[in-house]
Amino acid sequence: MTQYDYDLVVLGAGSGGVRAARIAAGHGAKVAVAEEFRIGGTCVIRGCVPKKLYVMASRFHDDFADAAGFGWTVGEARFDWGELVAAKEAEITRLSGLYAQNLEKSGVEIVRRRGVVAGPNAVAFADGRRVSTRCILVATGGAPTQHPQIPGIDYAISSNEIFDLAEFPQRLLVVGGGYIGVEFASVFVRLGAKTHLSLRAELPLRGFDEDLRRLLRDGLVAAGVDIHAGALPTRIEKTASGLAVTLQDESRLEVDAVLVATGRAPLTRGLGLEAAGVALKENGAIVVDAYSRSSVPSIFAVGDVTDRLNLTPVAIREGHAFADTVFGGLDVAVDHALVPTAVFTTPEIGTVGLTEAEASAKAKRLLVFETSFRPMRATLSKRAEKVFMKILVDGDSDQVLGVHILGPEAGEMAQLLAISLRLRARKADFDQTMALHPSLAEELVTMRSPSRIVERA
Q1: What would the pLDDT profile of 291-316 be if each residue is shown by its tens digit?
Q2: 20 to 30 A from 229, CA-CA: which of 7, 89, 283, 302?
Q3: For this structure, is 404 an active site residue?
Q4: Looking at 61, 228, 336, 437, which residue is catalytic?
């Protein structure tokens, strides 16, 4: 048998790579992980975790305002950007350290430098060392794309830099209507910034249910976000007081910072993949099969670098499945259907399953159950806030095809609903489930009559 220096070398110590390394080591493999930045990857260092912390910080804005309706007298509120940044940094440093400790406890060697593919069974590190390995796992994730390519784009920042700005941007333009764009717009308007959101389309969150898109737009506007639909920047200029941005509709904005959040791309450039014979998609994503194997049998890839479903829990599941299959003697393929999704704006979105457009194309007779109501908290705070819920049901089989929620704790509800949908729950199962009162979630089991029926010709 051919002898290698390692059984597995993982490129990238993000969520997927770390999980794969630990599970493979648990199966007895000799494993090394190469990471040139900080252990933990995008999610821990400059993604999910710091973003959620900033979302939590921003929601105190509404909490302070609502407290009076419940008998509380709250003094003058003051927000300190520097304190939030420092607290965030302390937390992600702690988490990064835990990730590293867990790798080391699992017997994984951490190589704190860049690694590139030097052949089907070889990896070269930035210090000049070259090692042989039975398998290579590419888990380098993605990086923000710098679009649009316009004059002055170098003055803009990406989601990598927004967390650690030296000064709080009192005037902020966010470009892009995807997850990242709407979440940061929602955060910064509540932290006190005059916030603009520039979109290519009329509504944010392309690919989501149309009702959620419309209601989120309304929620952002109600919070004070100025939305410039169909008007992307055409020029960014440096001025004495900040940045001047010209939009496609000829309007001009004066801001302190421009956050470009128009998407992310797989981080594969310069990894030596093409030379090793690995097939890539046009956007640089690694082409893999159901078991995360690339066109080269010894090279695998998981997470955002494959551009399958770019969510942290998906990368973790893919990494675990890869290790169990290759080193644990199991046969595990990840099912990418019915993955719950949350958008941590305020109002929050939680969704699982098909959108109404997708469900109406699948079901001959689609039953649409909807409700919109004022949450109990708003009855005393007097906040103009509504919760929206939609259940999509196949009229022939009674199977629930999708559930979409906008309102407080929508993400938490979507996580639990995903279990029901994976078990192929019927609307009758929802109806027969006792309500938990008083709660927001009880509305999911009390909707009895469809608001409309969509029939496919």
Answers
A1: 999 999 999 999 999 999 999 999 99
A2: 283
A3: no
A4: 437
